[in-house]
Write a sequence for this structure.
């Protein structure tokens, strides 16, 4: 299988923008999918305009006309029905590879994670939908393939907004369970690189749930590096993850968005260690962990 023409939807988002940047710097021929009434603008980029409701036949025709080989979805993972429509269109139009909106902090293949964080179930529903299509032959005998990529916390982005339980601007560290739990996280540009590697290795990555990270650290290791780079001591606040979840999960279940973010933040530290996990793909994709202090220097400079 060879991939030449790649389409991305969600190209202005937190993840979509760096993935688009990586795609545009690659050897692939890149298109961005944009809804009719979207105000997003993509300079010097080929745009495929589709109906707002993602009508399957219309999207399929647009993908077919541009001979799209791979579709990358970086809209919110909670948008299950939109993803299903895009997948149906990809199936209908002869697209070879779909990457759904998996990514992110937590593992939707883990039962405990889905129990703690119901929003992760949507990602599993989409992956199961892809599984249901992978053995179906299309006209001409071709099949749709997929790759789901799980990245852990968006690491550099997470340092700017408290996702890693560290308030860099306020010089505070909220240490979960002593701060000694190893967790996986990926810088946004690194995720872009991982997407490119998957497209460059279509056979090796076919129909797989893959895990990657650019950093594999504890909060204490991260805090030590932060204090070294900034030259400041951070206030240390110890937290018990189970007790914190007991407080914020009921609020999340009542629809509190901030509480949802807090549950994701906690669970993305205590239950997201990919290093020994089946499907850990850094070696498969030729990706190396990045330098922690370099990442922190860039983040602190931007802040």
């Amino acid at each position: 299988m060879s991939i030449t023409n790649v389409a991305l939807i969600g190209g202005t988002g937190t993840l979509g923008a760096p993935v688009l940047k990586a795609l545009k710097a690659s050897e692939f021929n890149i298109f961005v999918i944009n809804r009719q009434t979207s105000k997003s603008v993509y300079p010097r980029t080929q745009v495929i305009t589709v109906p707002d409701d993602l009508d399957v036949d219309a999207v399929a025709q647009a993908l077919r006309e541009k001979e799209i080989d791979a579709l990358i979805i970086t809209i919110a993972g909670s948008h299950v029905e939109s993803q299903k429509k895009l997948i149906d269109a990809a199936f209908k139009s002869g697209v070879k590879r779909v990457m759904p909106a998996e990514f992110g902090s937590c593992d939707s293949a883990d039962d405990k994670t889905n129990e703690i964080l119901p929003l992760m179930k949507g990602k599993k529903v989409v992956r199961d939908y892809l599984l249901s299509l992978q053995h179906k032959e299309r006209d001409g005998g071709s099949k749709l393939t997929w790759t789901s990529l799980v990245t852990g916390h968006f690491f550099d982005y997470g340092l700017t907004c408290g996702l890693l339980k560290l308030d860099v601007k306020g010089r505070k560290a909220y240490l979960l369970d002593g701060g000694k739990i190893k967790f996986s996280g990926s810088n946004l540009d690194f995720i872009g690189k991982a997407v490119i590697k998957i497209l460059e290795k279509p056979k090796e990555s076919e129909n797989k749930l893959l895990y990657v990270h650019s950093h594999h650290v504890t909060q204490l290791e991260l805090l030590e590096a932060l204090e070294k780079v900034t030259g400041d001591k951070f206030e240390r606040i110890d937290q018990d993850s189970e007790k914190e979840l007991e407080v914020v999960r009921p609020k999340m279940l009542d629809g509190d968005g901030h509480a949802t973010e807090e549950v994701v933040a906690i669970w993305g530290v205590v239950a997201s260690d990919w290093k020994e996990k089946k499907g850990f793909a850094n070696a498969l994709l030729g990706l190396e962990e990045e330098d922690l202090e370099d990442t922190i220097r860039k983040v602190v400079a931007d802040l």
The longest strand covers residues 29-35. The radius of gyration is 20 Å.
